[in-house]
Amino acid sequence: MDATVEKKLQDLWKLQQIDSKITNLHALMGELPMEVADLEDEIVGMETRVQHINEELEVLETEINARKNSIKEFQRNIEKYDEQLNNIKNSREYEAITKEKEIAGLEIMGAEKKIRETGKIAEAKKEILDKTKEDLESRRKDLEYKKSELTEIVKENEEELNKLQAESDKAAASLDSRLARAYGRIRTNMRNGVAVAPIVRGSCGGCFSKIPPQRQSDIRAHFRIIDCEHCGRILVDQSITGIEAQVEVKEEKTTRRKMRLTAKAE
């Protein structure tokens, strides 16, 4: 036999109350989970940067070594040219060898200049690498601390969270599948996770929009499940929540206290 609308509303309200407690417990953790996730992402980015800089340094080192080898080759050529100059036979041969020697000298100067320039680039990258490694180590320590802090908070609330989650699963199982899906969809779309809102002083307890009198009467009649025209939350009246009655009791106590204070003053 299908449950009455009133029973469905009671089950929905009970589920919402449990899920709100779970949300509040998660809120106690503050922004730690987000901070941990951000630090993990930042560390991955910095590790990638370190890897890229190391690869760039390897390329620069290869270039420097290649130019050093070319310098050695040109120096050997110059030594060979010097030997040839000792055995020249005519001026034309002398000029040709001298020209080759000058070219080799210029090549050496050019290679040495390139080595200096590449060395400066490498030094700058090494400074960036050292700073990045230093920052990376600092972030790793921050992550270790925040993870430890988060683990401690989770541990402190784990028993209560597990208990509430079990209650939530049980309460959700008592709903028919269509209603449970609707509840889950609405809850996911709401920033505060409230899918079932009470009527408080004629307004939606979720978005605080005024509810027309006729719609309030329909909600109190429990003929069907009615949602808020503005935010889409499922609305429940005070016979389900008891909230309006609680507000009235608090207001009555406040009024009586004011009356007593006024009487004493007189």
Report a brief summary of the structure:
Helices cover 79% and strands 4% of the residues. With 266 residues, it is mostly helical.
The CATH class of the largest domain, by name, is: Mainly Alpha
Percent range for β-strand residues: under 5%
Uncertain regions: pLDDT < 50 for 5+ in a row? 245-255
How much is the radius of gyration in Å?
Answer: 40 Å
Topology summary:
Blueprint: H1 5-28, H2 32-85, H3 91-173, H4 177-189, E1 196-200, E2 203-204, H5 213-221, E3 234-236, H6 238-241, H7 243-265
Parallel strand pairs: 1-3
Antiparallel strand pairs: 1-2
Helix pairs in contact: 1-3, 2-3
Features:
Helix Hairpins; mainly alpha; 7 helices; three-stranded mixed β-sheet; rod-shaped; 266 residues; single chain
